[in-house]
Specification:
Layout: H1 2-16, E1 22-28, E2 31-36, E3 39-43, E4 54-58, E5 63-67, E6 70-74, E7 91-95, E8 103-108, E9 111-117, E10 124-126, H2 128-134, E11 142-148, E12 151-165, E13 168-178, E14 186-188, H3 190-193, E15 196-201, E16 204-209
Parallel strand pairs: 9-14, 10-13
Antiparallel strand pairs: 1-2, 2-3, 4-5, 5-6, 7-16, 8-9, 8-12, 11-12, 12-13, 15-16
């Protein structure tokens, strides 16, 4: 009997820790109303629902949550989180800024750097000072001509060991290192974006790892 009790308890805990769907229903100061698998909860920052969803932050415009170790920002325009129990693919959601640009932080070869999504760039584009800070080895790298808004210049063509954004990690990502201060921020081009699935929804850019 005791063994059956603990087995049942383990099943219940397992189910509670795997929320299938999370939806933002309302924002009330520093609290958020979340609907989790059909049940509604009002949470304050630092609190966790019985299903295992933690509210990290709530403002008048968004709620930031953690589900199964993944962080996600929800707004009333894009209120639905991923179906974590059914989808094993890593997912990142980016909010556009006032100019419609999507900015985030990435880890390049294990070092953190700010990046901006640029579907018009064929590779990751990195300026020379940033490449030095990241410790990128340019010796023996092929030098190629590149076109910028200021005209033609040259850049080093290299392969990055890894580029990580959220839970998405890609290896051997092609990049160009410019010989000057352009671009001011690392441009996340198609050598990364072409290897993930992208979807835009109500001003939110969704990146999903491919199986």
């Amino acid at each position: 009997m005791r063994k059956a009790f603990w087995l049942l308890l383990g099943v219940l805990i397992s189910c509670a820790a795997n929320a299938q769907q999370v939806q933002l229903k309302g924002l009330f100061g520093d609290s958020a109303m979340l609907e989790i698998d059909g049940r509604q909860h009002i949470l304050k920052p630092g609190k966790k629902s019985p299903e295992g969803v933690s509210l990290l932050e709530a403002t008048t415009s968004y709620a930031r949550i953690r589900v199964n170790g993944r962080e996600q920002k929800l707004t009333l325009d894009a209120p639905i989180a991923a179906s974590y129990a059914q989808a094993e693919r890593a997912e990142v959601r980016l909010m556009g800024d006032r100019r419609g640009h999507f900015n985030t932080e990435a880890w390049i070869n294990g070092m953190r750097v700010g990046v901006m999504v640029d579907t018009g760039a064929s590779t990751l584009a990195i300026n020379y000072p940033t490449a030095q800070r990241l410790g990128l080895n340019l010796s023996g790298a092929k030098r190629i001509p590149v076109s910028t808004a200021s005209g033609m210049t040259s850049a080093y063509l290299i392969n990055l060991s890894s580029v990580t954004i959220g839970g998405i990690k890609l290896h051997n990502v092609e990049a160009t290192v410019h010989t000057d201060n352009f671009p001011q921020v690392v441009l996340l081009g198609n050598s990364f974006l072409g290897r993930v699935d992208m979807q835009q929804q109500s001003g939110v850019l969704i990146l999903r790892a491919r199986n």
